[in-house]
Amino acid sequence: MSTKENLDLVLSMYDALNAQDIERHHQFWTDDMIWHGPPGFGDIHGIDGFKYEVLKPFYKTFPDYHVKDEIQVANGDWVAATGILTGTPQDEWYGVPATGESIVMRYSDFWRVENGKLAENWVMVDNLGVMLQLAGRVAEPWS
Known about the structure:
- The chain is α+β, with helices and mostly antiparallel strands and 143 residues long.
- 28% of the residues lie in helices and 36% in strands.
- A 6-stranded mixed sheet has the order 2-1-6-5-4-3, sandwiched between helices.
- The radius of gyration is 15 Å and the shape is globular.
- 21% of the residues are buried.
- The mean pLDDT is 91.
């Protein structure tokens, strides 16, 4: 696939993320994909693990989840992006009770594309910033 097609693949996957369409992810990811999560998550192997161990609990905690890239870069079979995720916790996050106050989570992702699908994803999120917001120590989330 071309670099543009690989970037379009990620952008279409974001549409499914924002729509919380878990089943649609089969069209974007290989069955044996690997999600390299941030500290506290570890690696998740396989699309079903990703859907039910990552996405479903995340959507439960942040039912108004929305992700938007600020920067996207693609080069061959690699796509990278950084941006902002917003949501309002309705369930605990890492043991911190839900506040009902919206949070802003900065993230960076790197994807490896293989045969037209996402095969691996390295994820970095600002969990400390989210914890500070949940604890009420950041009055105005940075943008």
